[in-house]
Design a protein that fits this description.
This protein has one domain: Aldolase class I (TIM Barrel). Helices cover about 30% and strands about 15% of the residues. The protein is built from eleven helices and twelve strands. The longest helix has 14 residues. The radius of gyration is 19 Å and the shape is globular. The protein binds S-adenosylmethionine (SAM) and iron/sulfur cluster (SF4). The site of S-adenosylmethionine has 19 residues, from strand 3, strand 5 and helix 11.
Length: about 325
């Protein structure tokens, strides 16, 4: 198997997050304005053939873990066919998907059969009215049904991602964490990231340290081995709990030194850092029909310029953040 490429800071780059659509059936307040964002024309979005060529090129370079995301990936037509085709590419070690869960109950079995091994579901609250306020859609019950269907279908692990917002859902940190006592889920608390232009995040951000302190007050919490390994989350477990807790703190304690990821937006732009505005257009290369080795060369060049760390705490940079998570591919 090909060794993964490394960047200028000796980080191994083996993980690609592929956004398959910029569209979404929710409008989470921290991610999108109520009327949504301007949509790309269908012709601007990578076709499935283009996405598969890209995935094959990346896997051929040693990038062996792929996550399908969006927007909301389950709203793209024939998503199961795409997943099945990517899962069959020789050399892939892990294929996963991130979803808001609204359509999950109808897709869980199909996703498992199409080769999706693990799934992340966004779930910021356990209260239906609050769910409706955060996502601007009243569908908590459908999402919960989707999570149960994913468990039944054998998708594992199921990671539940909660963006913690002060004054909105920070009163539910304990309730969300308690899910790990009943289910084998990984409940992950994510610091709110300031993507929306002009938005002050300081009053919404609940730092990881505060989340951890609240969790520790609930009972003995042990750090799990993964906390020491690569990856953005710190992992913990309550005594005898079937599930785990993760804390993702891109803002207060950035994980740049262990960052192993690349992102490709739905219209085929490669981003080596979530918080950098630098993008490389891969769509043009794909549409010109360049051989895969040439596309790999373009990707390697971008990897060599991957920034050492993000500048999220720099106010000048924050004013210039040009895209939101839904269009980058979270
Ligand atoms: N629609 C899918 C979903 O919601 O899971 C996949 C795409 S969404 C952009 C991926 C992840 O980004 C979600 O877990 C969401 O909570 C997170 N996200 C979006 N905006 C964010 C923000 N401003 N701060 C932190 N996380 C954010
Ligand atoms: Fe849609 Fe996911 Fe963004 Fe919510 S976080 S608006 S579900 S893309």
């Amino acid at each position: 198997m090909t060794a993964p490429p490394t960047d200028s800071f000796a980080r191994k780059i083996d993980y690609l997050r592929l956004s398959v659509t910029d569209r979404c059936n929710l409008r989470c307040t921290y991610c999108m304005p109520e009327d949504g964002v301007p949509k790309f024309d269908h012709s601007e979005i990578l076709s499935y053939e283009e996405i598969i060529t890209l995935a094959r090129t990346a896997i051929g370079m040693g990038i062996s873990k792929i996550r399908i995301t969006g927007g909301e990936p389950l709203v793209r037509k024939d998503i199961l066919t795409l997943c099945a085709n990517i899962s069959r590419i020789p050399g892939i070690r892990s294929l996963s998907l991130t979803t808001n869960g609204v359509l999950l109950s109808g897709f869980a079995d199909g996703l498992h059969k199409a080769g999706i091994q693990r799934i992340n579901v966004s779930l910021d609250t356990l209260k239906p009215e609050k769910f409706a306020a955060i996502t601007r859609h009243d569908c908590f019950a459908r999402v919960w049904e989707g999570i149960m269907a994913a468990q039944k279908a054998g998708l594992s692990p199921i990671k539940l991602n909660a963006v913690v917002l002060r004054g909105t859902n920070d009163d539910e940190i304990e309730d969300l964490a308690r899910l790990t006592l009943r289910f084998p889920f990984h409940v992950r608390f994510i610091e709110f990231m300031p993507f929306r232009q002009g938005e002050s995040h300081d009053n919404k951000l609940v730092p990881a340290s505060e989340i951890l302190e609240r969790l520790r007050r609930m009972g003995p919490l042990t750090a799990s081995d993964e906390t020491q390994s690569n990856g953005p989350a710190l992992h913990y477990r309550f005594e005898n709990a079937p599930g785990k807790i993760g804390i993702i703190s891109p803002v207060s304690n950035h994980f740049c030194p262990s960052c192993n990821r690349l992102r490709v937006t739905a219209e085929g732009r490669l981003r080596t850092c979530l918080f950098s505005s630098e993008e490389t257009d891969l769509r043009q290369a794909l549409r010109e029909g360049l051989p895969e080795e040439n596309i790999a060369r373009i990707i390697r060049l971008a990897i060599s310029a991957k920034p050492e760390k993000h500048e999220l705490s720099n106010p000048v940079f924050r004013k210039c953040i040009s895209r939101q998570m839904s269009s980058i591919g979270g």
